[in-house]
Each structure stands twice: as structure tokens, then as C-alpha cells.
Design goal:
By secondary structure, the protein is α/β, with parallel strands linked by helices. The protein is 43% helix and 22% strand. The chain is built from twelve helices and eleven strands. The longest helix has 16 residues, at 121-136.
């Protein structure tokens, strides 16, 4: 890291409020409105603080619908040096603990319990099947398309380098954001997005889940093609959908073939009445075997 950049970052962290903001954003993305309530400062003052932190490459900003969120910058130049600097922030400071508790209060009680303890038996089998897939191959950078309230995102984020959930429902995204905070998941983020045109670069993710969205899709082939565009070389596309259509496997194979993906034999999640079908697809030019 250049010396002038290091000095800029040290100056940014020298302010107690900015240090608290960075410590809070290390636990997940926060809006200016949330930071204003937690820090008990005016919105213009908080906006000034986060701008300085962004200018120092300590935070990054992104828009989610009508809101702008901030989180600790994870990628880009000097990432390793930045992580080393942020690792110096003490994790056991009572002030930081109070801020985190205030943020939970601001976001409200989601009525959350441990996901595997409250979901029915079929969903628990589905979660186990997903975990088995992540044991077979690294998750890397994860994208969950149709993440809903974040159950699968929360399940797999700890196995991923970073995890992003995309959903068109703002209420679901806000619920998932609160759930991830309560669960202590720090490497996950939520975005507004349309599965036919997602705001990411080509080849950005190792693992992508089409999370129960294809059955109701108007253009399923377009959705599969868009997911394929985002896969890194050697990446995997996981297709998860309700298994109530007897022709579903043939349709999945056709959609994947038209998107130049090779589909492994789908797996029906065992239950009295098969409810979920899980399949893995990889680009036809990939040397990785779908499993």
C-alpha cells in the first residue's frame, strides 16, 4: 500500500465515530439512516463521515432500491493491507458491542429462530443436500438468485468467501439483512436485482444458485443464460426448484442445453411427496465434472 494511502486511512480511523462506523459495517451493510440512529448524530454528519471512509477506500457504497448501504470494502487494490489494518480494531470493545446491539434494535425483531430447527423435514433435507454439495467442491464467491428471506444464504455464507443474495422484494431483502446480522454472518450482502439482467461483471462468481425462480419465470432460458454469464471458469450453477411438474427434468435439461450448460442428473429431495429438485450444471467447455 502506498504511504500516502496508508496515512489517509489512518487519519480516517483516527476519529472515534468513524472507527465505530467501520467496526459496525464490518458486521454487515448499514444505511446512513441506521448509522444515524445508532450513533445518535445528524444525518449530514454521518454522511460526511461515511464519505471520508469511502474516499479512504475503507468502505464501499451500493444502492439497494431507494436506499444506499455501506460495508467494509472487501475487494480492489490493497485488499490484504486493508484487512491487516482493520484487524487492529479490537473486537471486544464494549462500545462496539453496544453499537451492534443498537443496530439489532433498529432493525427490529424478525422473530427468528435457527433455520434448521423451525423448517419442516423436507426443507431440512434440502439444506443437508446443499451442504453436501458444498463439501464436494468449494463454494468460493456465492450468488443466490431469488434469495427471499435469506435462509439458504445464511446456511451457506460461512462456507463462501463472500455471498450475495439478489431478490426483487424489498421486504424480503430487509428481513434477510436483519437475519444475517442476528446470525453473525459478516460476509453476506443483499441486492435488488432482476434475474434477467443482474448488476455484476462477467465471470464474477464460483457458485450460483437459481433459488426456486425458474418454475415461474417468463423466460427461463434467459435467466439461465444470465446466470451462466456470471460464472467463473470452472464454476457451478445450482438449480433448485419445486418438483411438482412431471416434465420438469426434461425442461431443465432443455434450458441448460440452450444456455450451453451440461446438466448432471437432478436429485429429488426424499420426502413422502417429492417437493424439491436439485441439480448442478456447468459450462460445456468446463473440465470440472458436474456432480
Amino acid at each position: 500500500m502506498p504511504t500516502d494511502r496508508l496515512i489517509t486511512q489512518l487519519k480516517a480511523l483516527a476519529d472515534p465515530v468513524r472507527l465505530r462506523i467501520v467496526a459496525l459495517c464490518a458486521h454487515g451493510e448499514c444505511s446512513v439512516s441506521e448509522l444515524t440512529k445508532v450513533m445518535a448524530q445528524s444525518q449530514p454528519r454521518i454522511s460526511q463521515h461515511v464519505k471520508q471512509l469511502c474516499d479512504a477506500d475503507l468502505l464501499e457504497r451500493f444502492r439497494d432500491g431507494q436506499f444506499v448501504f455501506y460495508r467494509v470494502r472487501e475487494r480492489g487494490g490493497d485488499a490484504q493491507a486493508r484487512r491487516g489494518l482493520l484487524s487492529l480494531i479490537p473486537e471486544d470493545d464494549p462500545a462496539f458491542d453496544r453499537d451492534l446491539e443498537k443496530l439489532r434494535d433498529v432493525r427490529g425483531d424478525t422473530g427468528s429462530f435457527d433455520a434448521l430447527s423451525v423448517l419442516d423435514a423436507d426443507h431440512r433435507r434440502l439444506h443437508r443436500a446443499l451442504i453436501e454439495l458444498t463439501v464436494a467442491a468449494p463454494v468460493g464467491d456465492l450468488l443466490d438468485i431469488g434469495s427471499g428471506k435469506g435462509h439458504i444464504l445464511k446456511l451457506l455464507a460461512s462456507r463462501a468467501r463472500r455471498a450475495i443474495g439478489v431478490d426483487i422484494d424489498p421486504g424480503a431483502r430487509q428481513f434477510a439483512r436483519a437475519e444475517l446480522l442476528l446470525a453473525g454472518v459478516e460476509n453476506a450482502s443483499l441486492r435488488k436485482g432482476n434475474m434477467y439482467g443482474l448488476p455484476f461483471e462477467d465471470g464474477e462468481f464460483d457458485t450460483i444458485i437459481l433459488d426456486d425462480v425458474l418454475a415461474e419465470a417468463d423466460e427461463p432460458v434467459l435467466a439461465v443464460c444470465e446466470a451462466k454469464r456470471l460464472l467463473k471458469p470452472g464454476g457451478r450453477l445450482l438449480l433448485l426448484t419445486a418438483a411438482d411438474d412431471p416434465d420438469l427434468e426434461a425442461r431443465l435439461a432443455d434450458w441448460c442445453s440452450r444456455a450451453d450448460l451440461r446438466l448432471a442428473p437432478p436429485r429429488r429431495i426424499p420426502s413422502k411427496e417429492p417437493r424439491w429438485l436439485l441439480a448442478v450444471a456447468i459450462p460445456v467447455d468446463s473440465r470440472t465434472e458436474a456432480a
